Amino acid sequence: MKDNSKISQDILEIIEQYLNGSMTTQELKDFNQLLELDDEFKVKVKDIKTMLAGIETQNLKEQLDEFHEEIPKTKVQKPTKSKVRFLSFSKLAIAASIILAVGSIWFFNTPKNEKIYANFFKPDPGLPTTMSNTNNFDFYDAMVNYKHGDYTLAIDKWRVLQEKNPENDSLNYFLGVAYLANKNENVAIPYLERAIEAKDDFAFLGDAYYYLGLAYLKEGNMELAKKHLSLSETDAAKKVLSKL
Q1: How far from each other are the two terminal CA atoms of the chain, in whole angstroms?
Q2: Residue 135 exposed, middle or buried by CB count within 10 Å (0-12, 13-18, 19+)
Q3: Which of 8, 51, 137, 174 registers the highest number of CB atoms within 10 A of its CB?
């Protein structure tokens, strides 16, 4: 997910339509589908709704303070409910855009396969890096970089090792997931394909099928995505398949 310095007016209008109940049936269906696919975005929308309510409360308080200053001090008068409706929702949304300097990417125009991929892909957590095995020091040194999110450096180090041992299943697997984490699924796929060639002898076989399925999903190859996700048999793979 990328950061935006400003939320577009189009997005604000869509959010406004959702929150004030003015969406068409199809628009509401699409919006709810997006919320179902992206839990993080669902939380964001909830936060925006809560924040807007807070802004409305503050604006109402300021309006009531001004109202009370305009009436005689000897006269007690309760504010009417119509004062609440004085505030324009559009102005609230614009105010929210200033507060939310960093927002979510809007997925309405994003293909379904990319929405699902974005919602489910998380980098492999990697292996413990105790450095106790000095024979594999170079491998675990790169693993430290990988676990710190420095995927490019980890890839550079692992590629040196993989060129010397191109059939090493673990190297091919972690190169594949590192390329995926580095947003380069086209390069990740060949490494993951080599990793699954090990079949039952490979400890990370289920994970390799899962990430390979995600890579094909990101590319839009639904047939190969479903094939490899089905072979994974992991809970994560089953969840993705339920969305396809």
Answers
A1: 21
A2: exposed
A3: 174
**Whole-number pLDDT of residue 109:** 63
Most confident of 34-38, 189-193, 198-202: 189-193
CB-based burial, 83-106: b 16+ in 10 Å, e otherwise: eeeebeeeebbebbbeebeebbeb
C-alpha distance from residue 68 to each of 64, 65, 82, 86 (Å): 6, 5, 15, 16
Domains and CATH numbers, the chain: 9-109 (no CATH), 120-243 (1.25.40.10)
Per-position DSSP letters for 144-159, written without gaps between them: HHHHTT-HHHHHHHHH
Cα-to-chain-centroid distance, residue 81: 40
Measured in whole angstroms, the distance separating CA 37 from the mean position of its chain's CA atoms is 10
Model confidence pLDDT, tens digit, residues 132-153: 555 688 898 999 999 999 999 9
Question: Model's pTM, two decimal places?
Answer: 0.58
Cβ atoms within 10 Å of 3's Cβ, excluding its own: 9
Structure confidence at residue 74 (pLDDT): 47
